[in-house]
Design a protein that fits this description.
alpha+beta, 3 domains, five-stranded antiparallel β-sheet, four-stranded parallel β-sheet, D-amino Acid Aminotransferase, Chain A, domain 1
Length: about 250
Amino acid sequence: MYVLASKSGILTGRRLARELGLKFHTNVNKLRQNFSVVIRYGNAQESSRIIDDTDCNSRDSIIRCSNKHKLHFYLNGSGILTPEYIVYRVGMTIPDKLGDRFLCRKREHRAGKDIVVLERGYLIPPSTEFLVPLYQGMIREYRVHIAFGEVIKVMRKFPIDGSAHPIIKTASFGWQYRRSIFNRIQCAESMKKTALKVADILGLKFCGVDMAWSGKEEGLGKWIVWEVNSAPSLNSDSLKLYVNLFKENLQRS
């Protein structure tokens, strides 16, 4: 009985397996025949060697959220705002809906190091894969941990110091998460409703939903969902929360 993790989720996946008394691996092709997958931690590999696959999370649910540019497709029509990734081709005319300033995402997306803010009329980097609308006025950004229909933890992004990038709010540009108290968050109930709806649409038993409040500047007054992570990194406190919920819910099934 295995926790099957992706390469990005290898550290947390291994810790989960140890705490739950399960075996651990990242590659189904290196395992012998006839094994059961109890938890998929970001790994959507398929194999006839699996005799009993899991819905925690299922292959299909992981595939649905694994690529940021597909999220808009799955959430479109749900009332949930999420950026539309536009595939870039050299020489293409920049769509008007991108506005005068937009983001370029390169082929290597790791930890947000690839993001470039660009203005219309400037040369687009040759390694660009996607063009993404720039939503300005995002005044509060969070990671909402969802597990088995509950919000179990909320983290808010803060600048590490005065050199943090004012627009690109990733760890690579000087931002970090700190724990927030749910009951003190403005619009907490609508945050919860949005995050749970995202998990339900994608079919995820657990995930980290990265989202931000648009604020008055954007004129939207609603949450925008940046991405959904089926293998969220967990610190020691978060790991305990997940382990306890896994024990409780997996025993029921």
